[in-house]
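Researcher: I've been going back and forth with a colleague about how Carbohydrate sulfotransferase might be arranged in three dimensions. Neither of us has a model we trust, so I'd like an independent prediction. The organism is Probosciger aterrimus, in case that matters for your notes. Sequence below.
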Amino acid sequence: YPWHHTQETQLSKFNLTEIEAVLGSYTKVLFVRDPFHRLISTFMQGMGSSPSFSSFVQDVLDSGPRNASMAWKPLVSICRPCLVQYDYVVMFGFFRQELGYLLQRAGLPEDNLLPEFTDSQVQWTYGWLSEQMFSELSLQQKQQLSRFYHWDLAAFPFSSSFLAD
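Model: Here is an independent structure prediction for Carbohydrate sulfotransferase. You can compare it with whatever you and your colleague have in mind.
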């Protein structure tokens, strides 16, 4: 359906038959990240106006999933993994390994195209940050966050997430 292909076109503008044809013509890759790490990253980048992580989390919870910013909105509501059959799901923290595999599958030379990733350092840093930030939250906030991201935690293997408990 190349006549529909413009930067402004959204899937919602197509009928069901066209959506299936368009999605079937692409290799679909979904990049996912632990929702708690997404919150930390958003807070650290100053995208929230709250002075503390705890008050930032409360603002997120008060906004609710429907009114949430794209930076912390549950992934399931953005990517629709139950409706779209993704060919690959790439977990944050495993980029080097997984992107190399994807490039290899596409027949591209992986060494020349990939930037240097420090996945193990990123994982360690987020593990430490998660522990620190999680300790700032009340039990009620922890429980509410787990409910807020319930479907993300059910859909993706975030077994080491602080919210998975």
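Researcher: What would you highlight for our discussion?
Model: I'd start with this: The radius of gyration is 18 Å. After that, consider the following. The CA atoms of residues 39 and 45 lie 10 Å apart.
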